[in-house]
Amino acid sequence: MLRRPLPLGIIVFLLAEALFLIHLTVPHQFVFDEVHYVPAARALIALDGPVNIEHPLLAKWLIAQGILLFGDNAFGWRIMSTLAGSATVASMFAIIWQITHRRRPSLIAAALTVLGFTVFVQARIAMLDGFMLAFLTSAIAMAAWTLRAGGLARWSAASVLLGAATACKWLAAPYVAFAAIAFVLLKREDSRRFPGLSVPLALGTLALLSAATYLATFAPAFFYRDAPLTLATLLPFQLDMFERQTQLLPTHAYQSNWWTWPLLIRPIWYLYEPADGAQRGILLLGNPAIMWSGLVAVLACWWGWVRSGSPRLLAAAALWTGSLGIWAIIPKSLGFYYYYYPSSVFIVIPIVVALDHWRDRTRGWDIALLAISMALGIYFYPVLAALPLPDANAFRYWTWFSTWI
Questions:
Q1: CB-side exposure of 282: number of CA atoms within 13 Å?
Q2: Distance separating alpha carbons of residues 404 and 219, to the nearest angstrom
Q3: Do residues 341 and 118 lie in contact, with contact meaning Cβ atoms separated by under 8 Å?
Q4: What string of pLDDT tens digits covers the 405 residues of the chain?
Q5: How many CB atoms lie within 10 A of CB 356?
Q6: Could you tell me what percentage of the chain is helix, strand and coil, using 3-state DSSP and rounding each to the nearest 5?
Q7: From CA 118, how far away is CA 342, in angstroms rounded?
Q8: Rounded to whole angstroms, how far apart are CA atoms 39 and 58?
Q9: What is the pTM of this model?
Q10: Parallel, antiparallel or unpaired: strands 268-275 and 278-284
């Protein structure tokens, strides 16, 4: 049974969920951007009117479902985020399975995704990014399955998932274009890929279903008591969202440029204050062993593709490069490290693909990286999971550089 991907994927999901649930309610107060998104979820439950309108509704609606199921408390705010984080880990397992069809690299990918720190932190906070990435990684896994197995149903599912990702946060919108470009290039290179799908059918399905899914998620807004949406105002409302997304914002202590994110120059303290009777901290920081070795793996994948033309090396390198490169052109006045969240997860793919591609030369490297990452995970765990800290100056134990403070 454990040689098949589905049972393994379910186990991966359940193990990740068990980890993310530990002390989920600590702290009981709002953490970082929960101050925006939990009130927005409450407003959706009450259907009062538009709140936090610079972002689409789906992720906030999912947070609201947790509140409805488990109460307006820390567990209710965050429980759906844990499911999104677990889905992301399982999807990374599925992506690598589709690329390699081997258990070891697939399980290593899932483990490195958890040990990368960013999924762990985002899975335990009521923010939009975790939901967006859960849909996005699921869409990539489904598209990778369609590459080999074909079928309009699978491609349609990937299109719907991309629309749902965009309905959580607009950051996912460029990936719809990435999917279209990847389909055309891969299909033209080898017509046997995506069996049963022509370019016009695939692109039409992608455009129609992703857009329809995105627009459908605004349905609750049609029932607001104050300023409800109508069919006539639905599209103009998107322009209002765009203006709010691109407005000039005041400077912020944690702002950073996109090119600094892979280097871990300016992470973010989501929390550092007394809470629940103790000094606590939550640091959004990628695991240095994974983030920095991942940059080497990206370069190796690009180099290997130039030398061999391997499509999987190209896909691994291009996904991470594209996920970061979009920030060079997105019209945002401020940048923050948490915008790197998708890239911090996608960087696991070139690591595992490179190690698998050159496995005759890199035997045992995956286990060594796993061991180093685990050691760093234990070291940083107190400021990933908001454990009680000795005093207000304890942050110095984990801030290797002055820019981490």
A1: 22
A2: 42
A3: yes
A4: 556 899 999 999 999 999 999 999 999 999 999 999 999 999 999 999 999 999 999 999 999 999 999 999 999 999 999 999 999 999 999 999 999 999 999 999 999 999 999 999 999 999 999 999 999 999 999 999 999 999 999 999 999 999 999 999 999 999 999 999 999 999 999 999 999 999 999 999 999 999 999 999 999 999 999 999 999 999 999 999 888 888 777 788 888 999 999 999 999 999 999 999 999 999 999 999 999 999 999 999 999 999 999 999 999 999 999 999 999 888 776 889 999 999 999 999 999 999 999 999 999 999 999 999 999 999 999 999 999 999 999 999 999 999 999
A5: 21
A6: 70, 5, 30
A7: 9
A8: 14
A9: 0.96
A10: antiparallel
Using DSSP's 3-state secondary structure scheme, residue 6 falls into helix
Burial of 239 per CB tally in 10 Å (0-12, 13-18, 19+): exposed
Judged on CB neighbours under 10 Å (0-12, 13-18, 19+), 84 is buried
In the chain the first and final C-alpha atoms are separated, in Å, by 47
Cis peptide before 5 (omega within 30 of 0): no
Task: For residue 389, give the DSSP letter.
Answer: B
